[in-house]
Amino acid sequence: MANTINVSKSLNVTVASEFIDDVQNNHAYYVFAAKHTPYANNSDGVILTPGDSIKERMRDIYDDMLFGKRILPADIKALIKRSDYVSNRVYAQYDDTDTDLFSKNFYTGVEDGSNYHVYKCLYNNLGANSTVEPSTTDINPIESPVDGYLWKYMFTVNSSDMDKFGSADYIPLTPNNSVVANAVSGSIEVIEIEEGGLGYDNYFAGEIDTVKVQGDPLRYAINPTASPDENFYNNCLMKMTNGAGVDEYRVITDYYIAGAKKVVVLDAPWSANVAATDTFEIFPYVEVYDTGGQKQTNCVARGLVSANSGNSIYKVEILNAGSGYRSANVVIRPDAGVSVTSNAVLRAIVSPPGGHGSNQASELHAVYAGITTKFVEDEEALTPDNDYRTVGIVKDPLFTDLVIRLNQANTIGAFETGEVVYQHRDIPLAGTVSVTQNNAIVTGTGTFFDPGLEYGDYILISNGSANFFTQVDYVQNSTILATTTNCTFSATGATIAYVMPSAFGEITSTIAAGEITVSNISTARLSSSIKLIGGESFCTSTVNTAAVLPVSINGRNPNNFNTFTQLTKFVGTLSSGTFIEDEVVSQDSVVAYSQPVARFHSGNSSTMFVTDANNIFEVGETITGANSDATFLVSAKYNGELIKDSGEVVYVENLEPILRSGSQTETIKLILEF
Fold first, then answer.
1. Can you give 395-437 as a three-state secondary structure string?
2. CA-CA distance, 470 to 463, in Å (whole number)?
């Protein structure tokens, strides 16, 4: 026998939510533009479907990549499908047993000036058409007396979020904090009538005749026209419809006739001063039995009776939705004297875990992430020339060739080429320490190693001219600990600090005194204030913020790595002719298969930008256009700012060509379904 499986739809919501959290808090994601050359056969007549092989998804994308912009926390939101209110439509109601709910119109949106309110349908009046759009932002369920619908207000989208993330098909999810905070877990807002039954004659509407019969606050005489049969209204619910006690309700525990008086006995006194001639209604009490064992507050309901259909139950009115239910049985238990010929069959619809509105992403099936960013004119690294026909998302690409100018006054030691450099925060610890070269024991004076430090913690010991960066092996007591490596110098009165490091990159060169070049840089771990420590040299330093460019990539300010260019840049002299956009350019080579070849993107008399550069272009050599015969003498070369094939390309979309301009801004809206 084959196994059967069911992957919950909630998993899609969870994955979408985790992706959004990842973008906002954990990793660096960039929207990139790529491919300035036409699709197949030098034509854009057919937009090709992106491939998903390693070559197509990584290498080809990186070869064609032009520039990118980081997705900031404000640039991404959860989305749900848009469902504008339509009159005379039957909206599906929420039902905890409906396996196809998310494929139905069970919520709607209503424009209200510059706002857009979203409501979930809790009850559709037995499948009736909705004729009145929901309104108000009351956190309690909203009943429409005209069409009988019951709605739950969920959240409001303001015009700013709608303009940025909304479309004809999707709207951003912007949970209302008040709705979330006031959601009631395990409530029962609706009791479904599966069969209305017949013969529920035990209903009545009238006036109070006498209050507190014989001084008893539980006994009230009602109209003489009430039923002549004792016990007839037992286990019914009496609700006041006017007077000081309007909307109060009590269960009738007994009904008897004493002389000319017809008396009801209630389960509890009225809270208000109910007076003679105040009106009331009596209907069958709908009993809700907790079967989940976690009920906190009783659900109270009454069955409304239709005289036009054999005194059947046509609606169950919820007077208190209760709380804490996981499951429930629902029954009406009329007195034996009531001529019920067919029992009503009722079913409680329990709210989702946490209550309606508590987890709006899950309740409204937010399986989409909306990303919106703008390529603004010639902003930073975003070249305004040529065109592009591919956009995508790359996660955690690594930057390369970042030049950092160091504050030499704060530098202890010297960085080494090839070592991993960490950025870090450090917390100076109390006291001083003594260390011995080639020994792992650290002895403190006025220190509190125990319980402050533990195995694996990073520490930095410094004597002012040398550093020792290591990890704690064990703590013996408040003044003695051992490190995982031996100290590199001897000192007394040295300082000790607790260090929180994160890998920043790898030093590829020390250009000059006070400068280092770093590669393999992950922006997800980059802070705005960089303090550095070498993993092998133990050199510590800070960035020289007084420099003209404290940090730079290819001579430009990286501006917190919010943008990048991936074009290969040549600096030199245009010797002759004019290059043609997208043409093949090359340098001469003795060996044909190693000839440097690329695609011309843009340029001027002193600069050339290319993509898809293969083999090694040499400084001091001439680049020639295959079609234009234009020539350019190279005096300097700068590769793209990302390490090719680094990170992970997670999304690719091919488009009609989009022409760039220095006076044009393109808004990129991407929708990812999970």
1. ECCEECCEEEEECHHHCECCCCCCCEEEEEEEEECCCEEEECC
2. 15
Instruction: Tell me if 535 sits within 8 A of 421, measured CB to CB.
Output: yes
Q: Is 135 exposed, middle or buried (0-12, 13-18, 19+ CB in 10 A)?
A: middle
Lookup: tokens for 302: 């009454």
CA angle 138, 120, 162 (to 5 degrees): 85
pLDDT tens-digit series, residues 393-422: 999 999 999 999 999 888 998 999 999 999
Handedness of CA 527, 529, 530, 531 (dihedral sign): negative
DSSP 54-67: HIIIIIHHHHHEEE
Distance in angstroms (rounded) separating the CA atoms of residues 610 and 298:
72
Q: Is the pLDDT of residue 377 over 70?
A: yes
CA dist 306 and 314 (Å) reads 6
| 279 three-class SS | strand
In whole angstroms, give the CA distance from residue 195 to residue 373.
54
Half-sphere CA count of 572, side-chain side, radius 13 A: 22
Give the integer Cα–Cα distance in Å for 366 and 674: 9
Domain boundaries, the chain: 78-182+357-369, 192-349, 402-553, 568-638
**CA dihedral for 112, 116, 120, 125, sign (positive or negative):** positive
**pLDDT band at 592; cut points 50, 70, 90:** confident
Burial readout 289-319 (b: 16 or more C-beta within 10 A, e: otherwise): ebeeeebeebbbbbbbbeeeeebbbbbbebe
Whole-angstrom Cα distance, residue 477 to residue 25? 38
**Whole-model pTM?**
0.86
For the stretch 244-255, what's the b/e string if a residue is b when 16 or more beta carbons lie within 10 angstroms of its beta carbon? ebeebbbbbebb
Q: What is the rounded average pLDDT of the residues 440-464?
A: 95
Q: Helix, strand or coil for residue 26?
A: helix
Angle at 193 between CA 352 and CA 195, to 5 degrees: 145
| CA 525/CA 635 separation, integer angstroms | 35
Q: What is d(CA 668, CA 665) in angstroms, rounded to the nearest whole number?
A: 10
Q: Report the residue count for the chain.
A: 674
The span from the CA of 128 to the CA of 124, in Å, is 6
pLDDT at 557: 87
Joined together, the tokens standing for residue 449 give 């190693």
Report yes or no: 674 and 12 within 8 Å, Cβ to Cβ: yes
CA distance 82 to 58: 34
Which two three-digit tokens encode residue 120?
């979930």
- Residue 224: helix, strand or coil by DSSP? coil
N-to-C CA span, the chain: 31
Q: Which of 471, 479, 434, 435 is nearest to 454 (CA)?
A: 471
**Which spans in 511-651 are helix H?**
none
Q: What angle do CA 464, 470, 473 make, to 5 degrees?
A: 130
Q: Which residues lie closer than 8 Å to 591 by C-beta, 6 or more apart? A: none
Q: How far is CA 105 from CA 12, 358, 671, in A?
A: 19, 20, 21
pLDDT at 41 over 90: no
Q: Which residues, in sequence order, are CB contacts of 281 under 8 Å at separation 6+?
A: 203, 204, 205, 238, 239, 241
CA atoms within 13 A on the CB side of 98: 18
Cβ neighbours of residue 110 closer than 8 Å, sequence gap 6 or more = 84, 85, 116, 117, 119, 133, 134, 135
Nearest to 57 by CA among 670, 652, 655: 652
